[in-house]
Structure formats: structure tokens, C-alpha cells
Amino acid sequence: MFQRFSANFLSPQGFSGERFNQAVLDQVRTNHLLEALASTAVLFPNQAEDRLQRLFGPAEVQVVRWDSSKVTPPEPKPQDLESFHKANEAVFALPARRTVDVIEFLNQGATEEARRKTGEAAFAFTSQFFNLPEGKNRADFSTAAGQAKLAVRTYGPFTPSESPFPGESDPKLTAAAFALTPEDPVSDYLPSKNGYLVLHLREAQPARNRPLSEVTPEVRARWLEQARIQMAAQQAQSFTQAANTALASGQKWEDLSKVASLVPIKLPVFSPADDKPLPFKDADRIRQAVSQMEPGRVSNPIQVEDGLLAVYLVKRDPASAETTASTLPKISAQILNQRRSELIRDWITGRASLPENKLPSQVLMQIRGSL
């Protein structure tokens, strides 16, 4: 049977039986090696228990916040604005814009037959603008619309992110408008809510970078906004670092907050792994921070929509006996599987990176990304 398989399948592809056998043997050896490697994965003492408590232990938490809008940065110097504008030129650029003429073929009924006839009329109208015989000029859009007794409406200028056509929200219409060029200014007939639209390019304004003199107020406002965030971040970073040092030496959280003119907010006790919604602002960010913290510590500053916050984990109570009994085996298995995958990944990428393999960097990146 193998001879038939080799003759009918392997040989036509230039694959000898010996080479096939060697490939199978190599695969078996590799699988055994990876299985042996994965079997060396172990849990560190208390690793699963620690993760269980971080996720399911009820946590008593306080939060302090820095409102970046209340920070007053210094006025920017001209060179500050110049360098900021140069580094963020694309942010202040004007996007490409289009102005188009539009005609609409309205369905004369709700049936498929009515829509088919509307489509035929739209097709007949657009045909005069495409596949022109050599030497024949393209028809004037407004004149053709007038002869067909179709009203021409003009929309624009608009950008690629806008929906300029009243009652229409399909982004394909805007994309079709930006696909038009002076050489091909008329679109195909495009489905709309009430029939079909045909677009004609009236004006194309390319994107352009605006000089600093044109956007100075915008650049200044953006510079000040970024400066506020940076100053608030520096204040938050200084506080959290000093607070963790002071807490370790026995100082009280309340005193540290008061000296820094911060007002701690006590949150309801919660467990990070609870899937129920939490009744406080920025709950997901706080939940994630608490799951990675030790009691009596302050988190690194966390940037949120209106500034920054830091989390102080007052204490963490033990997870319930019921939760521990049902969840600890699952967490242990999860950590063990992760460790097995890490061992296999590290071995494969390490072997692939050996100089004698001479694999291109792109291939190595693909190997690392797929594991």
C-alpha cells in the first residue's frame, strides 16, 4: 500500500518514500521532545493560591485623583510651539475634501420589479459617461441631468470621515465620492435608501499641511493640554513613589494624602474577578490594578479620561472556602498550561534563532508571533 501511495502521490510531487519516512520520524521525535519539555513545567509554591486571592479576595480600596484640567502649566515659548507643531504636523493638517453634485433615481414602488426598473434607468443614464468611443467627448453632467428631468443637488466640501448625504449613512457613498477624479468624474449608480444615487465630482481639494501661522491657537491649546497631562502625571508619579516608601516605614496613608492635598475616596468592597458591574467610576482600570497589588501598597498612576488616579489597597480578605474549593484547581491548571506553552515557545524560538539556521528576521518574527 505504501508503494502505491509513494508512486501515486509522493513521486509526482518530487517527494521520495525515504524522504517521507524521514519527515514522519522527525515529526515523531519532535512531538516526543516537546511533550517531555512540557512535562517539566511546575507550579511555584503558593503561585496558584496567590493568584486566587488577588482575583477573588474581597478588597478594601481607596482612590486618589489628579484632575489635569486644574493644573496650570507655564505659557509656551515660541520655540515650544514651533517644535510641537513640527512634531505633530499631521494632527493640524487639513484633510482632503470633496464637493459633489448628486442626482437620485427614486423607486416608483416597493416591489423588486420597481427597483429593477429604477436600476435600469440609472444604468442608462450613467452609460453615457463610460466606455466612450474614441474622439467623443463626455457629456456634461448638469446638461444630461436636465435633459433627464433630474434635480441636481450639491454637497460639500466634506472629508472622508463625514456622511454628507442627508438620510444616507453608508460610508461607501463617501468612499465613492473620494474615488472620483477629474479624468473620471462620474460614479456608477449607487444603491441608496430610496433608489440609486449618481455622483459627479465638482471640486477636489487635496489634503495639505497648515503652517504654524495658520494654526497657532490650535497648537497652543493642544500644547497646553499635553503640558497639563504631563504635569499631572509627574505629580502623581512623585506622590505614589514617595507614598510607597513612607508606607513601608510605617507612616499612615491618611497623613500622606493630607500632606499632598489629596482626598482619598473609599470604594465599596469588591473582588476583581467578580463579573458584576462595579458602581464607581473607572471601575475596570481599578479592578485590573487591584488584581496586581499587594495590600498596603499604592499603584502606579493610571491615566483616565479626566486625568490620573492611583489606587491604595488597604487590605484584602481571604477568598471564601467555597470559591477556593471550586476555583483553585482551575487556576492551577491554567498556570500550568501557560507554563507549558512558554517552555515550548522558548525552546522553538531559541532553536530557530541559532546562527547556523540562517533564518531571515521576518521568519523569526512570524515564528515568535505564532506561538
How does CATH name the architecture of the largest domain? Roll
Radius of gyration: 33 Å
**Class by alpha and beta content:** alpha+beta
**Count of individual helical segments:** 12
* Largest beta-sheet details: 4 strands, antiparallel
Assembly type of the shown chains? single chain
Give the H and E element order.
Answer: HHHEHEHHEHEEHHEHEEHH
Walk me through what this model shows.
The structure is a single chain. This protein is α+β, with helices and mostly antiparallel strands and 371 residues long. The protein contains twelve helices and eight strands. It has three domains: 42-50 and 319-371, no CATH class; 58-75 and 216-316, Chitinase A, domain 3 (Roll), CATH 3.10.50; 97-205, Chitinase A, domain 3. Helices cover 48% and strands 14% of the residues. The strands form two sheets. It has a four-stranded antiparallel β-sheet with strand order 6-1-8-7. A four-stranded antiparallel β-sheet has the order 3-2-5-4. β4 and β5 (195-205) form a beta hairpin. α3 (47-56) crosses α11 (321-352) and α4 crosses α8. It starts with a helix and ends with a helix. The mean pLDDT is 88.
